Amino acid sequence: MFLPLGEETIIDPIFASLETDDRVDNVYLSTNERFADDFETYLADSEFDKPTLSIEETTDEDEKFGVISALAQLVEREEITDDTIIVAGDNYLSFGVSEFIDSFVARDAPMIAAYDVGSREQARSYGVIDVEDNQVVGFTEKPANPSSSLVSIACYGFPAESVDLLETYLEEDNNPDEPGWFIQWLHDRTATYAFTFDGAWFDIGTADSYLDAVEFMLNDGTYVADSATTENVTLESGVQILEGATVTDATLTRTVVFPEASVKDASLEDSIVDSHAAVNGVSLTESTVGAHSTLNRPE
Predict the structure, then answer these.
(1) N- or C-end of the chain: fewer Cβ atoms within 10 A?
(2) The whole model's pTM is what?
(3) pLDDT digit string (tens) for 262-279?
(4) Where is the Nucleotidyl transferase domain (predicted)?
(5) Which DSSP string do the residues of 40-99 spell out, in sequence order?
(6) The CATH homologous superfamily of the domain defined by 4-205
């Protein structure tokens, strides 16, 4: 959610769109107690006024609710009774959330954002949608044999009456985890529509998808923070060197070097060097170097 994309984080464009939309009264950032301090710091340092932290009553990842249960608890905790937009914070969207709201308001019905991932094989990892005239006529969560390559991307619009159905869904002992199970249940009960779009979408669930998003955001270019130090380096497309990092005598391709990390006499491709890590004298491909760790050339 707070992974950097140039001078922004992944979630910043979502908040920026909501901040300037007069139709949006309240923005809730939901997390559990374990991450509350990090989120409070982010909000305090951000330029956004609307977001409010809403904390789930869990501390350990093992205690986390399923997504639908967490949404139902959020609705109860914040006493939400209005039309509601839900966006997953680990998604990079190439459209503004206000565009989605335009379509949602026009339909005045449940709506889901949908993206064609280009292959049915890839679609197996997501909720797969069948549409007719933009109405959802079929929805299957992570099917073994997808009927299409059009998938749900965790951006939803629910009228107030549909928000109330979250509790009904759970009371019937339905799956409390992925939101797609709720959509699968909902579209059989009320007309539900798809907001399809071109452009780009990245589900930042893996290092590779994060690097894809960085490369897209930088338009195949590079980003070097003002406080970073580089000397005798070759930077290919999709390279991001963040605040306080030092890179010398190195070649980087599609790589992110996090704050205060160092890379020296190395070649890195499709890799991530986390904060305060050090990489010296090695060649890496498709690698992640953890925070505060050191990787040296073997003697």
Answers:
(1) C
(2) 0.86
(3) 999 999 999 999 999 999
(4) 3-218
(5) HHHHHHSS-SSEEEEEES--SGGGPPPHHHHHHHHHHHTT--S-EEEE-TTEEESS-HHH
(6) Spore Coat Polysaccharide Biosynthesis Protein SpsA; Chain A (3.90.550.10)
